[in-house]
Structure prediction request, 214 residues.
Amino acid sequence: MSRKPLLLLALALAGALAAPAALAQSAGDWTLGIGVHNVDPKSSNGSLDATALGLGPLPPTEVDGSVRPTITAEYFIRDNLGIEVLAALPFQHDISIRGVGKVGSTKQLPPVVSLQYHFTNGSQVTPFVGVGLNYTTFFSEDTTGALAGTRLELEDSWGLAAHVGLDFAIGERSALRVDARWADIGTDVKVNGIKLGKADIDPLVYGVAYVWRF
Prediction:
């Protein structure tokens, strides 16, 4: 999968950081963001060993992307410093084995809690960075193709997450947000109760949102 959105966002962030100082966001403020984001897993998610199923070692596993509506809420515990919670409608991903094709699908929810710093600047663009914790729960697993008729299980995952973005001011209390996250998501894969290995998904999550401050 392409990593161009993260590169473009990083370049824009570097430019915004060069802007002159401006007013800070105040302690006690809240923001609410409604948007749409794409979960873009890395291109190769590791290889599984299906020897116990009579299939032997498998080629690399691939997980496709998924776009869903998202919502964020952030509370500023100090000027410029906030705690944000990310939620979303369930993302759905097809699971394929290189050279074999689609073998399954799953749904997942990846809530993230982040500590974020919003830089002050004198332009209409406010950059921010954050670091936090991601919990991903998988459900509604299904199998097809080479794994049809088997029972697929993906274990829940805990991992670190990083966040960068830009808020483009629209009026005094609203902004258009462009952002990208990286999350450390790795899940143990089981088929018929037999562990076949670990899938390292580690996606970029990027998109846009409309943000209100109150």
Residues 16-24 have pLDDT under 50 and may be disordered. The CA atoms of residues 45 and 181 lie 18 Å apart. The radius of gyration is 20 Å.
